[in-house]
Amino acid sequence: CEDCGKSLVGECKLHGPLIRAKDRVIPSRARLTLPHYLTLRVLELRAGNQQILGVFAKKVIQKRTQFGPYVGQLSTKLTHYDESRLVLQVLKDGGTYFLDTPNEDCGNWMMFVRLARNQEEQTLVAYQHCGEVYFTTVKPIEPHTELKVWYAADYAKFMEASAIFIKEESDVCALPPVAKEPIDPWICSSCRNTFATFALLESHQCIHKDRV
């Protein structure tokens, strides 16, 4: 204690505890790399305060907009797996490696982009170029729309996965369409009501908001 000049174990009984100043909380590397026209939103809060995040557009993003490269650690084994995210691999220096992102300080914002489960959801394709993985928009993305990605056709073959084909009005798709899967409903974290779209959830007037 600088006031009484004593070296104490714990607080000074005469002058009391020190005033503790906390460091400012700094966002992770992945969050700091997020472009200004994109935003992260919490879609679900699981046990242990685990947040399920999604990347959403704040303004119109044009078709053929390229993002990347994806930042991750090259690994021969996948140490971190999330069923809502794409598994990514690259061919580099004659070897095949996983792009692993065990935590937010090892990657960039692209690690938060969730996978598309059907053609309607998909807004991005993932592909490999010069040993790096990039995401490119396959159609204009409207504000408040979540960015969702799937493999490009050639990359899907490399990853031994099925391809989702984006069919435009002027295109003819010779392959059979991918079977649509039911889309999970949007759930209000307060009253647990479910909604078919995020827009309906946003406009929902929850009676529990004041209590929260």
Overall description:
- With 212 residues, the chain is mainly beta.
- It has a domain at 29-159: Beta-clip-like (Beta Complex).
- It contains three helices and twelve strands, in the order αββββββββββαββα.
- It has helices spanning 29-32, 153-158, 198-203, and strands at residues 38-46, 50-57, 66-67, 73-75, 89-92, 95-100, 114-115, 124-129, 132-137, 148-151, 186-187, 194-195.
- Strands 3-9-8-10-7 form a five-stranded mixed beta sheet.
- The longest helix is centred in the C-terminal third of the chain and has 6 residues, at 153-158.
- It starts with 28 loop residues before the first helix and ends in a 9-residue tail after the last helix.
- Mean pLDDT is 81; it is low at 167-183.
Number of helices: 3
Strand content: 25-35%
Tell me, rounded to a whole number, the average pLDDT: 81
**Low-confidence sequence ranges:** 167-183
CATH topology name of the domain at 29-159, in short, is: Beta-clip-like
Helix content: under 10%
Structural class computed from helices and strand pairing: mainly beta
Total strand count, please? 12
Within CATH, the superfamily of the domain at 29-159 carries the name SET domain
CATH class of the domain at 29-159: Mainly Beta
How do the SSEs run, as a string of H and E?
HEEEEEEEEEEHEEH
GO molecular function: zinc ion binding
Organism: Mesitornis unicolor (brown roatelo)
Domain SET: 38-152
Protein name: PR domain zinc finger protein 10
